[in-house]
Amino acid sequence: MVTANPSTSVALDGNPYNQGCPTRRILDRIGDRWTVLVVGALGDDTARFSELKRRVEGISQKMLTQTLREMERDGLVIRTVFAQVPVKVEYRLTDAGISLRAPLKALEDWSIEHLGAVLTAQQFYDQE
Amino acid sequence: MVTANPSTSVALDGNPYNQGCPTRRILDRIGDRWTVLVVGALGDDTARFSELKRRVEGISQKMLTQTLREMERDGLVIRTVFAQVPVKVEYRLTDAGISLRAPLKALEDWSIEHLGAVLTAQQFYDQE
DNA sequence: CAGTATCCTTGTGGATACTG
DNA sequence: CAGTATCCACAAGGATACTG
């Protein structure tokens, strides 16, 4: 994300609130619903396409393919094809992908810690 | 997000990959493009609506209003209306909102740190 | 098995106009 | 100033069918 004061976050092209800011673009990519879940579903081990599809409940074949392609393009995932019939394809996180797990874990921890408060706040807000 | 092994993350309703998982719902909320930027734009100080609109480049009035309402509902932001003409409205992060800054900062740091590698990976991937 | 291709529905969000 | 209301365009994403 972005810090309180623009001047404290001068990375790469000035204003981080700027639409073209690279950090913002990256966050748009890794911040999407499915990428976050796929990183979690992969963890440290390798997994096949169908296994991933099973783990990430609710993802469609199309979105899983698309998400994995983008992650591969970003260097977050390695795709290995085994030339056999039927084809077998394994995915695993790269070092960069693995390094993403820590900040995402921090977010997950925040969610778990604040879930109760958020739900309470919502109920209070809604009953008015 | 979600950990490598489902069994290590049994918070609140079992499988975190589950579509109904509260953690997943929360992440959907705070993970969206504008919430992240508004948290950053608010920082520690209060800001008026128009000031926020100026800080978060590219946000429309509609989305800023909508984002602030949802954040208020979630207990992340406090909205204070000053009954004067013309009206003045101030926003500031609650303690919960402030606590969100740390994990989001971790993600921002990751982005800055890996930006170069990601861009390089993309170029390499695309030239094939 | 692991996709690709196509269609089609839906949601997201921008632009604009109006108001307490 | 800080919104609300309305309309509209586009893109994300699901369902389905087909393939190396």
TrEMBL record, chains A, B:
Q: Does the keyword Cell cycle apply?
A: no
What keywords is this UniProt entry annotated with? DNA-binding, Transcription, Transcription regulation
In the record, which residues are listed under signal peptide? Answer: none
Q: Which SUPFAM superfamilies match?
A: Winged helix' DNA-binding domain (SSF46785)
> What is the name of the protein in this document?
Helix-turn-helix domain-containing protein
Sequence ranges assigned to domain HTH hxlR-type in this UniProt record: 21-119
One Pfam entry name: HxlR
